[in-house]
């Protein structure tokens, strides 16, 4: 039995067939970018299915010519004048980025076409990730004043040598063959037979890892990076991108690029020099820290960086980068500050500073509580801190009283949010309403 046809009105289409669950990212005209309308159902269904014994195999794919081009840049840009307008989608996404690598059911990503930034966080951590001759991967965030996020400050530093720094700073692209060679994908399947693989997995109707692997291997082929692949330039990449600063990396690239046979470095240098100086410096530090951090530590760090960057704490480059790339499309960003030497270490320090513990990304330490600490908990704490309320006791400013004991309503120590005896919503005026 095949899943129902895709509904063009829904940004995420869900199909449930016996023991199979199929997720289709369904914004093909926008290259399946990730908005709050995408993250929310993903988190909801993945949590439900992990707890559902009937759900065994999870497939995820993208409609059209992209798997997912990452975060919805227009969403960020449109919310630039309202502080923390995108806090919910950011929090949900990073929270989900922790649960995907640790997911209890068998997941298969069918990655055809563009797979960039946050979209790749739905590929790399999966038990099985299938790429094709049409797959294109990149982490281009630094170039527009952002940073390499969605768990990639953890995954990229674990690539050979200093390839992670190279990918994060230059937005260089990898194809399907290269992804398999690096272990960022598990299997390569020719694009023309990918639909047949999907049908077979649906008919398999089982989450048994060996059975799923066997089916995929019927369609997959062994591949090696092409002769001109960047993976064959590892020694030069290491020599340039091992440096301690962006300035030294650029100087080293200039030196190596002057040597006959290294003409490929020219476009790399050009890209580095037109990228956001602030984005480059934040990204390099994040990747370097990620070499020694756990996945959880990386995600907590990325959450701080994203919130501070979107708040324009040290620079508004991310909005200027988005404007130049996707709004006005003039490809002529005016960075502020415009040069690397004006982005001091002291400035960069500011976006790495931890928040109050209650406002950090909340990932439960205990396995039995792994789905606690979600967005609803964060929403409550944001309201508490912004409006200077008490966690329990009376809501003196609004005249409302807490109707539950602290032990059953909010347990900060366990980072747990449970349903109150009354419902509340935060209105535009910031008041608490029963």
Automatic annotation (TrEMBL):
Residues 21-352 form the Enoyl-CoA hydratase/isomerase domain. Signal peptide: none annotated. One of its GO terms (molecular function) is 3-hydroxyisobutyryl-CoA hydrolase activity. Keywords: Hydrolase. Its EC number is 3.1.2.4. It catalyses: 3-hydroxy-2-methylpropanoyl-CoA + H2O = 3-hydroxy-2-methylpropanoate + CoA + H(+). Coiled coil: none annotated. Pathway: Amino-acid degradation; L-valine degradation. NCBIfam families: PRK05617.1. Belongs to the enoyl-CoA hydratase/isomerase family. Hydrolyzes 3-hydroxyisobutyryl-CoA (HIBYL-CoA), a saline catabolite. Has high activity toward isobutyryl-CoA. Could be an isobutyryl-CoA dehydrogenase that functions in valine catabolism. This is 3-hydroxyisobutyryl-CoA hydrolase.
